[in-house]
Amino acid sequence: MKLGRTYPALRASSDPLDPATERSAFTERDANSGMVTRLRGRPALLVSSTSWTEDEDFSIFLAALEKFEQLILNGESLPSLVCVITGKGPLKEHYSHLIGQKHLQHIQVCTPWLEAEDYPLLLGSADLGVCLHKSSSGLDLPMKVVDMFGCCLPVCAVNFRCLRELVKHEENGLVFEDAEELAAQLQMLFSKFPDPAGKLNQFRKNLRESKQLRWDESWKQTVLPLLVDT
């Protein structure tokens, strides 16, 4: 509701009958009970974050969205998408211009800068995270994926050398090589959206269960044996 005041993609497409009822593009809150329900036929919410540098090639994501749009135009039963790409950086204007040229009918993209307290709320509200980070050294892991996993948000991430230490393909998300593979993954994940028995919910369940092992315990299991004098 807060972001919808600034970004039309997050606003409801129609007003509720009761003026006291709050409605976004995805949910509705009953004025009397305070209960929040998901709207039927709602769009899927994708989130990505970036510093808008050459380390992240967002043309891959945009090309995948175009392929997804074409699938809908060809009659595939897929939801509309709302894509929120957060962050600041030198290439933001360049990609914002490219996004503005796409004229997509079933996909809306917005590029807000979020307050620190709003970022985890957005991640926890989303259906899927997308990561375009490629490590220049091949040795560092994307902290944005750590943030997403901390909010139990499954991720599609572009592959690089050590990514699989974090993203377990078909367990807590999916790894892709190019736009075509990402588009196929989006089609598969959203083919029966929202599906309680689908892969997205299974990935989310796996992430919740994996949180049972905390940092201290993980350090003792993984690092401590390397330091103990045997």
TrEMBL record:
Region annotation Disordered: where it falls in the sequence: 1-24
Catalyzed reaction equations: an N,N'-diacetylchitobiosyl-diphospho-di-trans,poly-cis-dolichol + GDP-alpha-D-mannose = a beta-D-Man-(1->4)-beta-D-GlcNAc-(1->4)-alpha-D-GlcNAc-diphospho-di-trans,poly-cis-dolichol + GDP + H(+)
Transmembrane annotation, as ranges: none
Signal peptide per UniProt: none
Gene Ontology MF term list: chitobiosyldiphosphodolichol beta-mannosyltransferase activity
Pathway(s) where this gene product acts: Protein modification; protein glycosylation
Official protein name in the record: Chitobiosyldiphosphodolichol beta-mannosyltransferase
UniProt cross-references to Gene3D superfamilies, sorted A to Z: Glycogen Phosphorylase B (3.40.50.2000)
Similarity comment: Belongs to the glycosyltransferase group 1 family. Glycosyltransferase 33 subfamily.
GO terms for cellular component: endoplasmic reticulum membrane
EC number: 2.4.1.142
UniProt domain Glycosyl transferase family: residue ranges: 50-192
Keywords annotated in UniProt: Endoplasmic reticulum, Glycosyltransferase, Membrane, Phosphoprotein, Signal-anchor, Transferase, Transmembrane, Transmembrane helix
Location(s) in or outside the cell: Endoplasmic reticulum membrane
UniProt function note: Mannosyltransferase that operates in the biosynthetic pathway of dolichol-linked oligosaccharides, the glycan precursors employed in protein asparagine (N)-glycosylation. The assembly of dolichol-linked oligosaccharides begins on the cytosolic side of the endoplasmic reticulum membrane and finishes in its lumen. The sequential addition of sugars to dolichol pyrophosphate produces dolichol-linked oligosaccharides containing fourteen sugars, including two GlcNAcs, nine mannoses and three glucoses.
Broad class of the protein's primary localization: endoplasmic reticulum
Record's keyword annotation contains Glycosyltransferase: yes
Membrane topology designation: Single-pass membrane protein
Entry annotated with the keyword Disulfide bond: no
